[in-house]
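Field log, afternoon session.

UNIT: design team B
ACTIVITY: writing a sequence onto a fixed backbone
BACKBONE:
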C-alpha cells in the first residue's frame, strides 16, 4: 500500500505539496501564483475526511477548485487511501 501511495504522491501531489508534504512544492513558488498548497503536517482533517477532500477536491468543501483538484476520476478509493497512508508515513519520519 505504501509503495502505491508513494508512487501516486510523487506523480500527482509533490509539485504542490512538496516532497515533505509541507506545502512547499515547486508550483507553490511560482511568481504571481495564487496557489497555496496545504501543509499536510498541520491538517485538522481525520483520515476519512482527507480521503474525501482528495477525492472530490476543494470545490466540494467550498473553496476554489484550483485550490485542490478532484482526483476521483484518476484514482480509486484504495489508491487515495494509500496516498494518505504514505503522507502519514512521510510526516512521521520528519
Amino acid at each position: 500500500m505504501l509503495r502505491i501511495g508513494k508512487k501516486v504522491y510523487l506523480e500527482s501531489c509533490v509539485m504542490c505539496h512538496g516532497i515533505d508534504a509541507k506545502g512547499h512544492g515547486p508550483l507553490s513558488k511560482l511568481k504571481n501564483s495564487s496557489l497555496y498548497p496545504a501543509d499536510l503536517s498541520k491538517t485538522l482533517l481525520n483520515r476519512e475526511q482527507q480521503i474525501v477532500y482528495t477525492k472530490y477536491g476543494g470545490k466540494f468543501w467550498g473553496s476554489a477548485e484550483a485550490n485542490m483538484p478532484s482526483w476521483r476520476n484518476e484514482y480509486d478509493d484504495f489508491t487515495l487511501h494509500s496516498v494518505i497512508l504514505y503522507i502519514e508515513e512521510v510526516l512521521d519520519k520528519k
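LOG NOTE: The CA atoms of residues 43 and 89 lie 14 Å apart.
NEXT ACTIVITY: expression trials, pending approval
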